[in-house]
Design brief:
By secondary structure, the chain is α/β, with parallel strands linked by helices. Helices cover 31% and strands 18% of the residues. Strands 1-2-4-3-5-6-7-8 form an eight-stranded mixed sheet, sandwiched between helices. Helix 1 links the parallel strand 3 (39-43) and strand 4 (73-77). Helix 2 (95-112) crosses helix 3 and helix 3 runs parallel beside helix 7 (207-215). The longest helix has 20 residues, at 270-289.
């Protein structure tokens, strides 16, 4: 008798990576059948944890479970200064050092897990800064691509309004309208909240000055998504032209996500956004598979 494929959702488990002596905690979901087609690395924003990408407020909202169902391994990491690493780097790390730590953690992961076609980064807010920095650094051109939400170039608020080590920022700007989130999302969100490490907080005002140098070294496809009620970043035409114009990436896509606030992956729109992020990954894989072979002399 032929057995039907299992319909149980992929399991999400905790994992700790060794980033050259710094333990990075996180969450891992792997495909139920066969090796992964690629590894999706999910990078959370400021003041959150890896669980941002594993919403259980409603079935289907978790990026980890969805990605694994589609045949990918999904690894959501706690950035330096969050989770288990907080005891080792209590002040967190500046962006350049975060990139070094992330690359070391991914090298450790690769020693123990199949990668398929390689790494694809899905990042939110401050995590998007790390994704761009990781792509700009040595070895970054081996990434399949970046899908970033909740990050721009020009802030839509005055610098004193930015969240910091002892300031969460204006609550409404993080979330937008309450109707955009399912019941239970805010209770779950409270469990995910963590202090912004001091070094990360101190670097927040510097992003408009840091971005041009980073963007000029990014040579993988990038997709930016702005929620309909994004309130931390300018996303008018002028601001988006500046954001895109500085990137050396071979392909840059700008997307709008209706019915969403800044914390897209905790809202009703999470599943829609995650499917679109996975579709962008598929486009990156297609471009790589269909690329004209480079002739060697």
């Amino acid at each position: 008798m032929t057995e039907l494929p299992s319909t149980k959702p992929p399991q999400v488990r905790e994992i700790t990576l060794d980033a050259d002596g710094i333990p990075l905690s996180g969450l891992l979901a792997e495909p139920l059948h066969g090796p992964p087609r690629a590894v999706v690395v999910a990078v959370h924003g400021g003041g959150m944890r890896a669980g941002y990408f594993d919403s259980r407020a409603r079935p289907g909202l978790s990026l980890l479970q969805l990605g694994a169902e589609l045949g990918y391994t999904v690894l959501a990491v706690d950035r330096p200064g969050y989770g288990r690493s907080a005891a080792h780097v209590p002040a967190g790390q500046l962006l350049a050092d975060q990139s070094v730590t992330l690359h070391a953690a991914l090298a450790d992961f690769a020693r123990r897990h199949p990668l398929g076609a390689g790494y694809f980064l899905v990042a939110h807010s401050n995590g998007g800064k790390l994704a761009l920095a990781a792509a700009a650094d040595e070895g970054g051109d081996s990434l399949l691509g970046l899908d970033i939400s909740g990050l721009g170039l020009a802030y839509a608020v005055d610098l004193p309004q930015l969240p910091g080590a002892n300031v969460r920022g204006e609550w409404r700007r993080h979330w937008g309208a309450l109707r955009l989130y399912p019941p239970g999302a805010f209770q779950q969100g409270r469990a995910l909240v963590a202090p912004v490490p001091p070094l990360e907080a101190a670097e927040l005002p510097l992003w408009p000055a840091l971005y041009p140098g980073i963007a000029a070294r990014v040579r993988v496809p990038v997709r930016f998504t702005f929620a309909e009620q994004e309130q931390w970043w300018r996303h008018d035409d002028e601001a988006l032209d500046a954001l895109v114009g500085l990137l050396a990436a071979p392909k840059v896509t700008i997307a709008r996500q209706p019915d969403a606030g800044h914390n897209i992956s905790l809202g009703w729109a999470a599943r829609t956004y995650h499917f679109r992020a996975m579709a962008f990954l598929e486009e990156c894989l297609l471009a790589r598979d269909a690329a004209v072979p480079v002739r060697t002399p």
